[in-house]
Design goal:
Elements (H helix, E strand, L loop, with lengths): L12 H26 L5 H18 L8 E3 L4 H7 L6 H29 L2 H6 L2 H13 L2 H8 L5 E4 L2 E4 L3 H21 L2 H4 L2 H23 L10 H4 L19 H5 L8 H33 L4 H24 L3 E3 L1 H10 L4 H14 L3 H9 L2 H22 L8 H16 L3 E3 L2 E3 L1 H39 L1
Antiparallel strand pairs: 1-4, 2-3, 5-6
C-alpha cells in the first residue's frame, strides 16, 4: 500500500509526538483493560509502563525495522488467573505472573534459535498465502463482536439486583460511536496531509466531546438515558477529596516490587502449574505472531520474516513479554490495533513506535492522562475499533487476491479457516484453551498438509499410468 512515511523515515519532532499519541490511543484501552480483568490489585499504569518497556525491547531486537507496538496480551488472561488460583498470597501471585511470562518468553527464545539454524522456508511451505491471508482476516473479524459490544456501551451504571446495568440509552451510545467513526473516516479520506495521519485522535476527540455534551445535558435535566460518561476516573485523582501530589504524578505499582516478597512461598508444584498454564498458550500466540508480522510485512511491502528475520522478531516479542510482565504483570504481544493504525494512517515510521513506547512509560506516571484515557466511553472506542479491526480483516483478505481460488485445494483451505474462525471454534485441554484464531490456523494447516500429501502420492501414479499408455501406443 502507499505509505506517507516509510519505516526508516523520520518525521519532525512535533509530528512524531502527535503520531505517537495516536498510536498510544489505539493500543492503550486494550493494554489497560487486561490487568483490570485479572484484578487482584494489578495496576493498569504499571501494565502501560511494561508495554512501553517491552516495545523498546522489541525494537532493540528487531533493529528498529518493525513498526509494531507491543501491548498486554489477552491470550494469557486465563493463565494469569492460574497464578492467583488456590488462595495464594498476592506476593506469590505476582511472582507467578513473572515466572509464567518467563516460561512463555522462553518458548519464543527456543523457537527463535531453531529458526536461526533451520531458516524460515518451512514456514512459507507450512503457511502459504492461502493460510496466512484468511488467518489475518480472522484476527480482525474475531474482534468485531468486541467493537459492536463497545459501540452500545456507556460508562455510568447502577446496580439492578446483583448486576450493574448502564444508564445510557444504547441508541445514544451508538450515536456517539458513529460520530467517532464518521469523523475518523472524513479526516482520513478528505483531511489535509497532517490530519490524515492522525484520524484516530480527531475521531476520538469528536466522540468524546459528543458524549460529554450528552452527559452534561443528562445531568442537568436529570435524564439518565443521556449519561454516557463517568467522572469516577477523575474523582479517583483526589485523596480524601483533596488535591495532592498524587493527583498529578504517582509511581505505578510495579509487579516486581510485590513479587520479591513471594519467594519464601515458592514451591515446585506451583512452578509446574504455571508452566502447564503458560507454555501451551505461548505456542498458540506464536501462530498469531507469524500472522501479525505477515500482515505488517504486506502493509510496508517488506518481508519482516526475512529482514530483520523471524528469529529476531521472536526474540523481541519473547523477551519483550518477559520485560513487560516484570513491570506490569502482563505478557506482551504485537498489537493488531497498532498494525491497523499504520495501515489507516500510512505512517510506518518506526520512530513513531519508539516515541510511543517512551510516551507510554512516561504517561504511566501522569495520573490525569491515565484518568482521561480511562474516562473515554466504550462507545467512542467502539467507533474507532470498527475501523481498526476492519482494516486488519481487509488487509488479510488482500493477501488472498493472488491466491487462485478456482483450485479446490486453495478454496477448501481458505473456507475452513474462515468458517472455523468466524464460527468461534475453540478447543480446551484442561486449563489450556486454543483460541478460535489458533484453531482456524491449525485446521487450515492440516487441510493444506493433507491435500498436499495426497497430491504427492497421486502424481507419481498418474505419471506411471501416462508412461504405460505411451508405451502401448508405440507398441
Amino acid at each position: 500500500m502507499k505509505l506517507i512515511y516509510n519505516v526508516s523515515d523520520k518525521p519532525s519532532f512535533g509530528k512524531t509526538v502527535v503520531f505517537a499519541i495516536q498510536q498510544l490511543l489505539a493500543i492503550m484501552a486494550a493494554t489497560l483493560v487486561v490487568p483490570v480483568i485479572v484484578g487482584n490489585g494489578m495496576s493498569p499504569a504499571a501494565a502501560l509502563f511494561g508495554a512501553g518497556a517491552g516495545t523498546l525491547t522489541y525494537l532493540l531486537f528487531t533493529k528498529r525495522k518493525s513498526p509494531v507496538f507491543l501491548g498486554s496480551s489477552f491470550a494469557f488472561i486465563d493463565s494469569m488467573f492460574v497464578a492467583f488460583a488456590g488462595g495464594v498470597s498476592m506476593a506469590l501471585g505476582y511472582l507467578g505472573l513473572i515466572i509464567g511470562a518467563l516460561f512463555a518468553g522462553l518458548v519464543y527464545v527456543i523457537i527463535s534459535f531453531i529458526v536461526r539454524f533451520v531458516g524460515t522456508a518451512w514456514i512459507t511451505k507450512l503457511m502459504p498465502a492461502a493460510i496466512i491471508g484468511p488467518t489475518v482476516a480472522i484476527i480482525g473479524l474475531s474482534l468485531a463482536g468486541n467493537a459492536v459490544a463497545d459501540l452500545v456501551s456507556g460508562e455510568v451504571t447502577q446496580i439492578v439486583g446483583d448486576e450493574p446495568q448502564q444508564l445510557a440509552s444504547p441508541l445514544i451510545c451508538i450515536l456517539c460511536g458513529l460520530v467517532t467513526l464518521a469523523v475518523t473516516i472524513i479526516v482520513s479520506c478528505f483531511g489535509k496531509k497532517t490530519l490524515r495521519l492522525i484520524p484516530f485522535i480527531i475521531g476520538i476527540l469528536a466522540g468524546y466531546v459528543t458524549a460529554l455534551i450528552f452527559t452534561l445535558i443528562g445531568n442537568a435535566a436529570g435524564v439518565d438515558a443521556l449519561k454516557v460518561m463517568s467522572v469516577e476516573p477523575f474523582k479517583a485523582l483526589l485523596t480524601d477529596g483533596k488535591v495532592t501530589l498524587a493527583t498529578f504524578v504517582s509511581l505505578p505499582e510495579f509487579t516486581f516490587v510485590t513479587a520479591f516478597k513471594g519467594f519464601g512461598e515458592l514451591n515446585t508444584s506451583y512452578v509446574l502449574t504455571l508452566a502447564v498454564s503458560y507454555v501451551p498458550v505461548a505456542f498458540v500466540v506464536f501462530a498469531e505472531h507469524i500472522a501479525d508480522h505477515k500482515n505488517i510485512s504486506y502493509i510496508i511491502e517488506k518481508d519482516l520474516l526475512e529482514d530483520p528475520g523471524l528469529e529476531n522478531t521472536l526474540l523481541g516479542d519473547g523477551v519483550g513479554s518477559m520485560v513487560g510482565a516484570f513491570f506490569g504483570g502482563c505478557p506482551n504481544t504485537t498489537y493488531g490495533e497498532s498494525v491497523g493504525c499504520v495501515a489507516i494512517s500510512g505512517n510506518a515510521s518506526v520512530v513513531t513506535i519508539l516515541y510511543a513506547a517512551i510516551g507510554a512509560m512516561l504517561i504511566s506516571f501522569i495520573t490525569p492522562f491515565v484518568a482521561f484515557v480511562d474516562s473515554i466511553p466504550s462507545c467512542v472506542l467502539g467507533g474507532v475499533c470498527m475501523a481498526l479491526y476492519g482494516f486488519i480483516a481487509v488487509s488479510g483478505l488482500k493477501m488472498i487476491k493472488d491466491v487462485d481460488l478456482n483450485e479446490n485445494k486453495n478454496l477448501f483451505v481458505v473456507s475452513t479457516i474462515l468458517i472455523a474462525g468466524i464460527g468461534g471454534l475453540t478447543i480446551s485441554f484442561g486449563k489450556v484453551t486454543l483460541t478460535s484464531i489458533a484453531c482456524a490456523l491449525i485446521l487450515g494447516i492440516l487441510v493444506n498438509v493433507m491435500i498436499t500429501a495426497i497430491e504427492k502420492k497421486k502424481k507419481p501414479v498418474e505419471e506411471e499410468v501416462k508412461d504405460d499408455g505411451s508405451d502401448e501406443t508405440e507398441g
